[in-house]
Amino acid sequence: MDGDRKELSIACGPSGRNGTAALTVRLGDDVLAAENVNLLEPKKRGEFANRLCDGRPGVDPKAVEAELLKLAADLAKRPGRPEADPSGRPDPATLLATMPEAVRAEASAMLEAPDLMQRIVADIGLLGVAGEKELAATIYLVGVSRLLELPLASIVQGPTSTGKSYVIKKVASLFPAEAVVIATQLTPQALFYMKPGSLVHRFVVVGERSRAQDDETADATRALREMLSEGRLSKAIPVKMGDRLETKMIEQDGPIAYVESTTLVRVFSEDANRCILLATDERPEQTRRIIKSLAASYAKGPGADPAAVLNRHRALQRMLQTFPVAVPYAERLGEAIDEHRCEARRAFPQIVSLIQASALLHQRQRKVDRAGCLLADPDDYNLARHLLAVPIARQLGGRVSDGAVRFLDRLRAWFSAGDEFTTADAKKHETQSKSSVYGWVNELHDAGLLEKVAEHRGNSPAKYRLTAESADPDAAAVLPPVEKVCE
């Protein structure tokens, strides 16, 4: 050691069964702190490290964090200590401490990189996702939002074979096992009967939504809606106790971040307005990107080591500390949101949550105020605005999806003003699936871009005609520019 440099040391004294330990921190011979800290709670460790390093230029936050992680791992291995998580999930810090030092160093450097989001998208590309950069980035931030008080939920829409499930699967693979719940199908009662605590701050990834649009299906998603809205579930059920029945409450705590996919253009409004509606790119040029990527992989064999990419991101996620996130410009943003649609009441918290998720991901590049809140900066709003321009415009501006806009352009090439046509007539020209055509026609009709001139009767299909209305291409106008919000 340099003679002018004092060495930091942290001594761990007696510890309680809940993970709280008596810590004494010294810098050379000087005692900097002596207090009880719950080493098994990332938030408590983070708060302690922040207090310790505040105003002390000789104390390296990375060195403090590394020492606390080692102590947490040692404490977790002690016999007789009950699990800190009631569901049996191991502490992320304990798992992080067992990962190779080189992997932790990579993840740490990535968290501090100014182009963090671009690196994440590039890594998703290394896993085989061609194009779909905005979609992949948004799903990743939805996953990060699991650590927030109000996480995000999303539904990825798109025609069959456009890669909805593939993108979701690849993004979800970047999250460690203790952070994610992957279920191909989620039955109505599944959430209630999971082990208590197993959904708290988890990223729940579900497969394809049922195509049925009836009352039974709506009832099946009721528990999901309650979890997304309230952050917890409760249900009273009769239980036989001997010769009598007693009512027992089943409770399941959240909150959860959530993503699923669907080929449906129309989703139950009760579900849709709780979720950010995202869409895959169905254009021929995107198909060309996918084929080119597949061809390259077949010709050259495996490229980047997927294990290296996965380990780097799983370490990164385990490094993220939970913080309350303040958005200093939230009031100005709220003033700029159009209040004439009731959907704004749900859309505004979604915008703020994506800003908070970005800040949480970039936490090593953001400031923390005296109250311990992480402060979102203008870059977080800029990213949220870029990713949410079209989804929020669909919710608040009456804009149709990009797929429907492109379908409208094709309809105008196939049919002249005043021509009457059916969905079957349109399908004769269209390369996408029949269900996509039906969905887009309904979406365009709802938006006033198609006029229904004859209702469906018996064997006679409904007939439509193009209107003079045009789809608003300026989705970004719904969310104000960063200069207006972040002075």
Model description:
- The chain has 487 residues and is an alpha/beta fold.
- It has three domains: 90 residues, no CATH class; 201 residues, 3-Layer(aba) Sandwich (Rossmann fold); 65 residues, Arc Repressor Mutant, subunit A, CATH 1.10.10.
- It is built from 19 helices and 14 strands.
- Strands 5-6-9-4-10 form a five-stranded parallel sheet.
- The chain is globular and about 90 Å long.
- About 1% of the residues have low confidence.
**Given this structure, which CATH class of the largest domain is correct?**
Alpha Beta
| Number of spatially distinct domains | 3
Main sheet: strand order: 5-6-9-4-10
Helix fraction, binned, reads 40-55%
Q: End-to-end distance, in Å?
A: 46 Å
Structural class: alpha/beta
Q: What name is given to the CATH topology of the largest domain?
A: Rossmann fold
Number of strands: 14
The CATH homologous superfamily of the largest domain corresponds to P-loop containing nucleotide triphosphate hydrolases
Q: How much is the average pLDDT?
A: 82
CATH architecture of the largest domain: 3-Layer(aba) Sandwich
Uncertain segments are 80-84
